[in-house]
Amino acid sequence: MNFWLLQLHAGLDPGAFPIRVAAYGLGAGAAASLCTLAGVVGPGLQVLSADARLATEVGQACPSAGIEVEAVPAH
User: Fold this and answer.
1) Do residues 34 and 47 make contact, with C-beta atoms less than 8 angstroms apart?
2) Which of 8-17, 33-42, 56-65 has the highest mean pLDDT?
3) Element holding 56 (H helix, E strand)
4) Which of 4, 9, 21, 26 is deepest in the core (most CB within 10 A)?
């Protein structure tokens, strides 16, 4: 996960503190961490990843979380 993008998403909203905690505490790219993050940010979490397997892993780890994972080419 991109720490800085999560921080930008949180912005200055005082109610976004759980997102800031997630940015500091969750592992990079792990399906379980994305499942946890989905619980923090709510439905509609969109993830871009160079890992083509991540969508399957997230779907198996938390199928009801509603996380959209799109595989993009690595640059």
Assistant:
1) yes
2) 56-65
3) helix 54-61
4) 26
Q: Is 58 exposed, middle or buried (0-12, 13-18, 19+ CB in 10 A)?
A: buried
DSSP state for residue 26 in the 8-state scheme:
S
31-57 pLDDT, tens digit per residue, is 888 898 888 888 888 888 888 899 999
- The Cα-based distances of 1 to 11, 13 in angstroms read 17, 21
How many CA atoms within 13 Å lie on the side-chain side of 34? Answer: 28
Asked if residue 69 lies in contact with residue 58, where contact means CB atoms within 8 angstroms, the answer is: yes
Angle, vertex CA 25, rays to CA 57 and CA 12, nearest 5: 110
Distance CA 54, CA 21 (A): 23
Read off the pTM.
Answer: 0.75
- Cβ atoms within 10 Å of 48's Cβ, excluding its own: 12
